[in-house]
């Protein structure tokens, strides 16, 4: 791993993402309690050697008063985090509106919003304006903290306008941008009214990264077809300036999961779960309650499986953890009631006085609880309609020591590219196929399970989140060096 900073000094990295990896709760006028959420990105960056990383992002709370803002800034500084304060109106237009109602569904092939189609032109424009304003606010905070030699790594679809704002502030800044969602076919991207402006802003970055080669290819095609630029094997070229475009598949901190399995709390919970579901095979789904996750389709496939396989009815249980998310967006509210309705119907239909086939939870689990659940699972169902990568599939594999459970995985999740040989790949829209795969998975021979698991486990434990972050940062440093060399020649 090459360092970009001066000799002996750690490379300073500013990580900019919409959301900081903390949950902040206000305890008083000037006091906050913070909890760091140890997600993939956090452990990835903690694991990168010789890098001194700071986070810049929104703390997820509205803090209208200066006293509160100052106190939160102080508390966050201890966690190496720097807040961007967004007021309610901008959160509504930028986060709920442009990010989650327009870009998110579009990038997952669900199209632009269908309702009030005629009215959208106006609201679309105001949401896009808010998006740009919000991105500028992130850029302002970055520029206040930027020091020469820093590398700035922008994350995700919330911040596609940021590379341009940063380069306008300082053209020498090393800027990388990574997309955590799919980048769709250029035919989908071209339906977006602000398609060109967004592409151009992203191209201001020195390095642009995606989870898979396909997403990178779609992005390059969008630049060639929509902007008329030249795509090269290295990336996209515009008037002699090359923006490197490449695939950097993310992973997990697999050691953290392995360590958790040895923890007494996890062992205790595993014992409890085994007792609770004795005599039944455990199937598991863990998803944010999002339309891209295909939860209704998954549950309908499970219903079809129960319908067609009466002998399995009292021998299997589906545990579906559906973590509430973006609850202010109407589409997500509708999805919650839809899922509840289907689960209720199936439990009414196949339940008995002592057992129900589906346990559906509208909440998240703590880390140890989740590890224990992964460990006792016989079949995991990851059936997203589209998904950038999907790390639940990786986490499940990491927690399956001796058990060698089966992973049923959507071919539309980025993870299908890496775990495809070990998992049972399915088209989540094809409920008959998913139902048949459930049956196949439950009845799979232990030899086949072992072979498949070995493949997945080797991948998950050797392609970690730390490797991902190191490769991206190292490549970002190189890109800038190359660019400087070119100008010197
Ligand atoms: C996806 C996005 C992330 C986002 C996460 C949770 O994984 O790629 O950028 O943080 O969903 O969504 P939320 O809207 O709650 O931040």
UniProtKB/TrEMBL annotation:
UniProt protein name: alpha,alpha-trehalose-phosphate synthase (UDP-forming)
Gene designation: LOC109717349
Transmembrane portions of the chain: none
Tree of life domain: Eukaryota
Family, as annotated: In the N-terminal section; belongs to the glycosyltransferase 20 family. In the C-terminal section; belongs to the trehalose phosphatase family.
Whole-protein residues included: 142 to 630 of 1000
């Amino acid at each position: 791993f090459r360092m970009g900073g001066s000799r002996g000094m750690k490379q300073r990295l500013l990580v900019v993402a919409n959301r900081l990896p903390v949950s902040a709760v206000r305890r008083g006028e000037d006091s906050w309690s913070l909890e760091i959420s140890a997600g993939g990105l956090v452990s990835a960056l903690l694991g990168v050697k010789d890098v001194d990383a700071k986070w810049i992002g929104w703390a997820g709370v509205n803090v209208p008063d200066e006293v509160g803002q100052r106190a939160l800034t102080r508390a966050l500084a201890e966690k190496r985090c720097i807040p961007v304060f967004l007021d309610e109106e901008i959160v509504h237009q930028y986060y709920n509106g442009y990010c989650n109602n327009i870009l998110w569904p579009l990038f997952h092939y669900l199209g632009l919003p269908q309702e009030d189609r005629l009215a959208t032109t106006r609201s679309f424009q105001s949401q896009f304006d808010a998006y740009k304003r919000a991105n500028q606010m992130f850029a302002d905070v970055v520029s206040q903290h930027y020091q020469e030699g820093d590398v700035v790594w922008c994350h995700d679809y919330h911040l596609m306008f940021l590379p341009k704002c940063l380069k306008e502030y300082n053209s020498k800044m090393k800027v990388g941008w990574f997309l955590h969602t799919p980048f769709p076919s250029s035919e989908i991207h071209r339906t977006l009214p602000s398609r060109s402006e967004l592409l151009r802003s992203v191209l201001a970055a020195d390095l642009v990264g995606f989870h898979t080669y396909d997403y990178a290819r779609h992005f390059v095609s969008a630049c060639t077809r929509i902007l008329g630029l030249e795509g090269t094997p290295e990336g996209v070229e515009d008037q002699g300036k090359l923006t490197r475009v490449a695939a950097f598949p993310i992973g997990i901190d697999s050691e953290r999961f392995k360590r958790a399995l040895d923890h007494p709390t996890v062992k205790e919970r595993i014992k409890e779960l085994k007792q609770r579901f004795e005599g039944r095979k455990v199937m598991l789904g863990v998803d944010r309650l999002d339309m891209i996750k295909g939860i209704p389709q998954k549950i309908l496939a499970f219903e079809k499986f129960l319908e067609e396989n009466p002998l399995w009815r009292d021998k299997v249980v589906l545990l579906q953890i559906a973590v509430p998310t973006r609850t202010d967006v109407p589409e997500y509210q509708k999805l919650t009631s839809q899922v509840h309705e289907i689960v209720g119907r199936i439990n009414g239909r196949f339940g008995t006085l002592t057992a129900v086939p589906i346990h559906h939870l509208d909440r998240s689990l703590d880390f140890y609880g989740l590890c224990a659940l992964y460990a006792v699972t016989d079949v995991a169902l990851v059936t997203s309609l589209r998904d950038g990568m999907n790390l639940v599939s990786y986490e499940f594999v990491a927690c399956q020591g001796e058990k060698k459970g089966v992973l049923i995985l959507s071919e539309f999740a980025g993870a299908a590219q890496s775990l495809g040989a070990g998992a049972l790949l399915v088209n989540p829209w094809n409920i008959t196929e998913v139902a048949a795969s459930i049956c196949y998975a439950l009845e799979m021979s232990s030899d086949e399970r072992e072979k498949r698991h070995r493949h997945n486990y080797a991948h998950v434990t050797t392609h970690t989140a730390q490797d991902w972050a190191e490769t991206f940062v190292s490549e970002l440093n190189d890109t800038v060096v190359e660019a400087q060399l070119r100008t010197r020649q």
